[in-house]
Specification:
Strand 4 and strand 5 form a beta hairpin. With 248 residues, this protein is an alpha/beta fold. The protein has a six-stranded mixed β-sheet with strand order 6-7-8-3-9-10, with helices on both faces. Strands 2-1-4-5 form a four-stranded antiparallel β-sheet, with helices on one face. It binds adenosine-5'-diphosphate and magnesium ion (MG). The site of magnesium ion (MG) has 3 residues, from helix 1.
Length: 248
């Protein structure tokens, strides 16, 4: 078995996605296309539907209507477990198993989902930990690591599954400022390697330098979409102009 990280990316397309919670319409017809190997950053105010949109991509949230396509093929009715094997997700709060070692955190899904034996799972896990500079942390519990290190473990765990798409939901928002850069650099490296990334972020510097496209969400819709230069330097809508004046 090879321990090289493989990159096999898929394109993602969301078509006219609607999600409501009771009477609250959270996504009101969202279309988004992310070509294979590209990075889209999703920005926008709190409550605008960014997390819900991301969760639709691996169907943690099932849309009320609309379609989801991977490599041009609808997966909206496909087996959700099979879909989730193609998608890695990294959350604000890491979501590591606190009572297991760093190594176990990565080997457990490899064993249960990918059905690797113990030795093979450990070989992959150690290789992915080495990729994020944390091979020496394998025996520790997550609590013994800094927030930035825990987030890098979470990224290593997702990458160990060889996803075709990675979703990041405010992956650096819970980190102390001095730990943010290490995680952003790692994410930039994945973009460079050609993994398809959808990144919800408040890090406008990252969006500007790494994103191929930036989507600005407000009240359940993508109200502006374009290159980082267009979105940041020539915002068209008053809502985006106001948002940028608050965050830049
Ligand atoms: P964002 O990530 O942009 O802050 P979210 O997608 O988390 O926005 O939430 C959008 C809106 O949907 C918010 O008003 C939020 O309170 C609501 N919401 C999100 N998830 C649920 C849920 N499971 N049940 C009810 N309301 C929800
Ligand atoms: Mg959110």
């Amino acid at each position: 078995m090879t321990t090289e990280a493989k990159t096999q990316s898929a394109s993602v397309e969301l078509r006219d996605i609607h999600v409501s919670f009771g009477t609250l319409e959270v996504l009101r017809g969202v279309d988004l296309t992310v070509p294979r190997g590209e990075t889209v950053c999703v920005i926008g105010p709190s409550g605008s539907g960014k997390s819900t949109l991301l969760r639709c991509v691996n169907r943690l949230q099932e849309p009320d209507s609309g379609d989801l396509l991977f490599d041009g093929e609808s997966v909206i009715k496909a087996d959700p477990d099979r879909l989730r094997q193609r998608v890695g997700m990294v959350f604000q709060h890491f979501n590591l198993f606190g009572h297991r070692s760093v190594l176990d955190n990565i080997t457990l899904p490899l064993r249960s989902v990918k059905r690797l034996d113990k030795a093979a799972a450990e070989e992959v896990a150690l290789a992915r930990l080495a990729d994020v500079g944390l091979a020496d942390k394998a025996p520790y519990r997550p609590a013994a690591l800094s927030g930035g290190q825990q987030q890098r473990v979470a990224i290593a765990r997702a990458l160990a599954m060889e996803p075709e798409v990675m979703l990041f939901d405010e992956a650096t928002s819970a980190l102390d400022p001095e730990l943010v850069k290490g995680v952003l650099d790692l994410m930039a490296g994945l973009a460079e390697r050609g993994l398809t990334l959808i990144v919800v972020t408040h890090e406008m510097g990252f969006a500007r330098s790494v994103a191929d496209k930036v989507a600005f969400m407000d009240r359940g819709k993508i109200v502006e979409y374009g290159t980082p230069d267009a979105v940041f330097d020539k915002p068209q809508s008053p809502r985006l102009q106001q948002f940028l004046s608050q965050v830049l």
